[in-house]
Amino acid sequence: MTAELGNIALWTALVTALFGAGAAVIGHRRGNTPLFEGAHNAVLVHWALVTIALLSLEYALITSDFSIRYVASNSSRNYPVWYKIAGLWGALEGSLLLWAWMQATLAAQVVVMYRRKHRDFLPYVSAVLMGISAFFLLVLLIPANPFERHAPVPSEGRGLNPLLEDTSMLVHPLLLYSGYVGFTVPYAFAMAALITGRTREEWLYITRRWAVAAWMFLTSGIIYGGWWSYHVLGWGGYWAWDPVENASFMPWLAGTAYIHSVMIQEKRGMLKVWNLTLISLTFSLVIFGTFLTRSGILNSVHAFTQGAVGYFFLAFLALILLSTVTLLTYRADRLKSEGAVDSFLSRESAFLFNNLLLVTFCFTVFLGTLFPLLAEAVRGVKVSVGAPYFNYVARPIALGLLFLMGVGPVIPWRGGSWVSLRRNLLGPALAGLAAGGTTFVFGIKSPWVLMTYALAVFVSAVAVQEYYRGIRARRKTAGEGPLAALGQLFVRNRRRYGGFIVHVGVALLAIGIASSSAFQVEQERMLKQGESLEAGRYQVRFERLTGSEGPTHVKVQGIFTIFNDRHEAGRMTPGLRFYPTQQEPIAEVDYWIGFKEDLYLILGSFDREGSWAVVKILVNPMVSWIWIGGAIMALGTLLGLLPAGLLPPPVKGERS
Amino acid sequence: MRGRNRQVLIGGLVILASIGYLVWTGTQQALVYFYTPSEIQAREVGRTGRRIRLGGLVVEGSLTHAPDTLTYMFQLTDGGARIPVRFKGIPPDLFKEGTGAIVEGQIGADGVFDADLIMAKHNEEYRPPSGDRPSPQELYRSLIKRERS
Predict the structure, then answer these.
(1) A372 at B interface, C-beta within 8 A
(2) Which ipTM value was assigned to this complex?
(3) Strand, coil or helix: what is A567?
(4) In this complex, is the C-beta atom of B93 within 8 Å of any C-beta atom belonging to chain A?
(5) B39 and B49 together in one domain
(6) A642 three-state secondary structure
(7) Fewer beta carbons within 10 Å, N or C terminal of chain A?
(8) Would you call A580 an interface residue with chain B, using a CB distance cutoff of 8 Å?
(9) Half-sphere CA count of B129, side-chain side, radius 13 A
């Protein structure tokens, strides 16, 4: 029953989406208000129908209805209920249903928010959003149907991939999908602007906060993914330049370029074609990433494997690119730039260089990810492009971006004089040089690390200086106390001051990445009971092995005593989980997280009688700075997004 | 004004050219080509000291292990040629004779492939719990029992 209900809901949702898209456009063209209103109601009905489909699958998962193939493959009777719920996005079909539901929710939200406001845009916006929804529903109905039945009905399900049995599973995909889906709103408005010819800055103002919110979710999702990789995958790292990671990083780079370049268009009326291109690129990369991860064309740790779905995504991608290019050409006459860059030393040019770096960064990642495919197709050779390529290319680009992050926000629009530049940049630059110099004196010789430290301090110093100057100015002109002045800075220019917090977060993240990749200490050895292995200032002594039975697996743990500079500091118990349904065991790492460094233990192979075990010890410096930096980035974005209604009103004084 | 724009344009071209150079040198240095044992034997490829990958089956009876130095010696074959491989470290659990493996490293002066990375072919296919292999409970019974007592 559940399966039939789900399928019926999906089919009717598809029909409703197509009707909504058609009715919105025709209703608007003919000025037919009932049809037009009907189209908007269709978006809401569509949402309700996809919700029914989603709940049907959840119901099947929670009640362990193994007559549905998807449930049998991704759930198990003895799971706690939240793992059963999370089974929804544990594999291809369910994750696409979740995506379709989030897409439908967003479309409904847009209609509810804007139905009385942007009547010229809305028909085309809902048509584009319904078109995207219809695509996902088509995929769900044909190549990736989550409600497919199978026989014979097994008595027990296979369960989730054990790697996904972690609470992060409940968070990471939701964040990531929210980011992906969020970018469809600015994309839909961009297309609506092109179709209606209303190509001035209106669509940018409407979608500014949508894009920033999507960016925040995508950023948090990627960093949370790094944390998941770090504490679950058990290889001691947080980022491997794996195709699936790159698939999320590419739209992030394009989206980051977009949320910066829109500011040039808002202020100067420049880069209209560029902004439309960037948001289309971001959305295309989301779809391309989905294609990469769901078509099985690349080997990857976390790729879903399934064939036919790939063709659907490829065709959809072609459709997006073709329609965007056609529309851009069609409206080329309305997209003339109203301004030009007046000076090399202007914020415009800093933003232009930032965009150039971000987009070429994106291209180098794209190239590295697809290179093995291209090389095999063109030259018939098998190659692999690993982390060395990506790190080699990414380091200088990332440093260039850090530099611009410091300079950009303090150069005036239209151009500044050398005198004003000196006034704004001398202090931070000296702080950066001092930081680089100090770390050099303390014995750090790697030029990359030194430059990262110097630039990170430079960026943070710019932020501190701007806060300080802003507060000082308000205290003088408005006579406010420091806290009130800080509040008013935010109320008046949330985007700028939220942005500075994000930049500080990026600086901390950069320090964490540079330190952990340059100074990781790694030791691996086979230890008999009572033997020790040293790594950095830690000694790790193997005591014994212990085994235990869990609901889904058997766990073997090594017990290790840790000495920090010869003083006993505690015990660590890294383990391996053995699942009856999996050939390979899953590592369960143990770690101590610190501000300065993490101690990280991985259990390798071991003797079944417990006399020896192989242990890998990693001392990872400053990895926690990455998580702290990521959290600060999300917080800064959130502060920048606060709706005006939640903030106290601006008080007297000039508007900045 | 045109002059200012030209400065920005030149700056942009400089950035593009540098990144182009980075990508070019990056792909020259960091690409790792994959060869089969026959290709290595026939074409003498990969003897230039650059990192390559070599894939094949671990020849039955060729695997030896020196526990004191953690060194493993074995041969990889694709049915035709056999290439000797030396590996220092701890190989993955699935690595054993008769299974597929990919190694990464370079060919040493003595013609032996010096690997610093072994990737055992893993089979992610679903395995019903009641197979021929003993269950984890049976395998690790002594460790579990010791804990209970």
Answers:
(1) no
(2) 0.78
(3) strand
(4) yes
(5) yes
(6) coil
(7) N
(8) yes
(9) 14
- What gap in Å lies between CA A169 and CA A378, rounded to an integer? 39
Quick: pLDDT tens for A573-608.
999 988 877 767 888 899 999 999 999 999 988 888
The whole-angstrom distance between B38's CA and the closest CA on chain A is: 15
The verdict on B110 and B37 lying in the same domain is: yes
Nearby residues of B141 by Cβ (< 8 Å), 6 or more positions away: A547
* CA separation for the pair A7, A140 (Å, rounded): 9
- Is residue B73 located within the same domain as residue B114? yes
Q: How confident is the model at residue B12 (pLDDT cuts 50, 70, 90)?
A: confident
pTM for the model stands at: 0.91
Instruction: Tell me which residues of chain B, numbers 112 to 131, contact chain A at a CB-CB cutoff of 8 Å.
Output: 122-124, 126-129
Task: Of A201, A226, A216, give the one whose Cα is nearest residue A256.
Answer: A216
Separation in Å, CA of B51 to nearest CA in chain A: 11
Structural domain count, chain B: 2
Mutate to test the interface with A, among B5, B21, B23, B96 (most CBs of A within 10 A): B23
pLDDT digits (tens, 9 = 90+) for A77-111: 888 888 888 889 888 889 999 999 999 999 999 99
pLDDT band at B147 (very low <50, low <70, confident <90, very high): low
User: Could you tell me the residue range of the domain that residue B49 belongs to?
Assistant: 32-120
Q: Residue A399's CB: how many other CB atoms inside 10 A?
A: 19
Chain centroid offset of residue A282 CA: 12
Residues of A in contact with B142 (CB under 8 A): 547, 608-610
**Nearest chain A Cα to B139, which residue?**
A608
CA of A569 to nearest chain B CA: how many angstroms apart? 24
Same structural domain, B64 and B17: no
Contact yes or no for A580 and B1 at CB 8 A: no
Distance CA(B111)–CA(A368), nearest Å, equals: 31
| Structural domains of chain A, with CATH | 1-160 (1.20.120), 165-237+244-332+350-384 (no CATH), 387-518+627-646 (no CATH), 521-625 (no CATH)
Instruction: Please report the sign of the dihedral spanned by the C-alpha atoms of residue A374, residue A380, residue A386, residue A389.
Output: negative
Which own/partner pairs from A326-332 qualify as long-range (CB within 8 Å, at least 24 positions apart)?
A327/A191, A327/A194, A327/A195, A328/A194, A328/A273, A328/A276, A328/A277, A330/A194, A331/A194, A331/A197, A331/A199, A332/A273
Between the two ends of chain B, the Cα-to-Cα distance in Å is 86
Mutation target for A interface from B1, B4, B36, B130: give the one with most A CBs within 10 A.
B4
Which of B90, B140, B142, B149 to probe the A interface (max A CBs under 10 A)?
Answer: B140
Q: Note whether B15 and B67 are same-domain residues.
A: no
Answer whether residue B43 is part of any domain.
yes
Window B:28-67, CB contacts with A under 8 Å: 29-34, 53, 67
DSSP 3-state percent helix, strand, coil across chain A (nearest 5) = 65, 10, 25
The A residues from 523 to 552 touching B (CB cutoff 8 Å) are 524-526, 545-549
In the structure encoding, which two tokens stand for residue A294, read together?
A: 């769901």
Of B15, B26, B146, the CB nearest to A357: B15
Structure tokens that stand for A588 in this block: 């369960």
Q: Are residues B62 and B79 located together in one domain of the fold?
A: yes
Q: Does B109 touch chain A (CB under 8 A)?
A: no
* A393 Cβ under 8 Å from any chain B Cβ: yes
Q: Which pair of structure tokens corresponds to residue B79?
A: 């049915």
Q: Where are the beta strands (DSSP E) in A495-589?
A: 521-528, 532-535, 538-549, 554-564, 567-572, 575-578, 586-588
Specify if B136 maps to a domain. Answer: no
* B138 in a structural domain: no
Nearest in space to A92 (alpha carbons), one of A373, A307, A314: A307
More confident residue, A168 or A256: A256
Chain A residue closest in CA terms to B125: A582
